[in-house]
Design a protein that fits this description.
The protein is mostly helical. It is built from 7 helices and 2 strands, in the order H-H-H-H-H-H-H-E-E. Helix 1 runs antiparallel to helix 2.
């Protein structure tokens, strides 16, 4: 069994946790649970296409604006300042327009994304950092009780790893295919860690809608 298979399994478990606790979750975590379910469905399509030895890169391209939108909107729930939250949310339609223009002019559905994917990843890193800073500044709770902390930290860890791998891709490929395979295994491990951290958010006793802390039932 490959680490990617384990990562896929943890993603399924994570989505099931979100669905099983859906009625007990706060508004922002319900939205997050829906995102995780969509993510599992897309990953399933990717695995199925790969099993048939067919090109599945088109799913990466088409899913990207959804992934960006879901991630950024989820993180925006934990931002206290209205102005920052509005800017973060406005970035979604702006990115979608950029994504579409680049896809129609510079990129292809059958090849790796050379601009849209790293651009989206860099933006998600930035929003994750802003969210972490906002939570650390505004919360009066221990960080481990704050779902936004777990979500933003896991997102930052995962997307920063993906971005670094993109920057190193050509260099690693020039060394050997074997080395590239090992690097992707590292990404798979980070993905598993991300899913575990995401799952913790579903069990936090507090939620923070627009930075206002509220105790919710377990």
């Amino acid at each position: 069994m490959q680490l990617y298979d384990v990562g896929y399994g943890t993603a399924i478990v994570l989505a099931l946790i979100g669905l099983s606790r859906y009625r007990k979750l706060s508004h922002e975590l319900r939205f997050f649970a829906i995102y995780l379910l969509v993510d599992v469905l897309v990953t399933t399509v990717q695995f199925y296409a790969a099993s048939l030895h067919k090109n599945n890169l088109w799913t990466v391209h088409l899913y990207l604006p959804l992934q960006y939108g879901f991630t950024v909107w989820t993180l925006s729930y934990f931002l206290r300042a209205d102005s920052i939250r509005n800017v973060v949310r406005f970035s979604i339609p702006v990115f979608t327009v950029v994504w579409l223009v680049v896809l129609l002019t510079l990129e292809s559905l059958t090849t790796y994304s050379t601009f849209n994917k790293p651009f989206a990843t860099a933006l998600m890193i930035l929003v994750s950092m802003i969210t972490m800073y906002s939570i650390n500044r505004d919360t009066t709770l221990s960080m481990r009780y704050h779902p936004g902390f777990w979500i933003s930290t896991a997102s930052l860890l995962y997307f920063a790893t993906v971005f670094m791998l993109f920057l190193m891709f050509n260099y690693i490929l020039a060394i050997s295919q074997e080395m590239l395979g090992k690097v992707y295994q590292i990404q798979a491990v980070i993905g598993i860690v991300k899913n575990i951290m995401y799952s913790i958010a579903f069990f936090c006793p507090f939620h923070s809608l627009y930075g206002k802390q509220v105790l919710v039932g377990k």
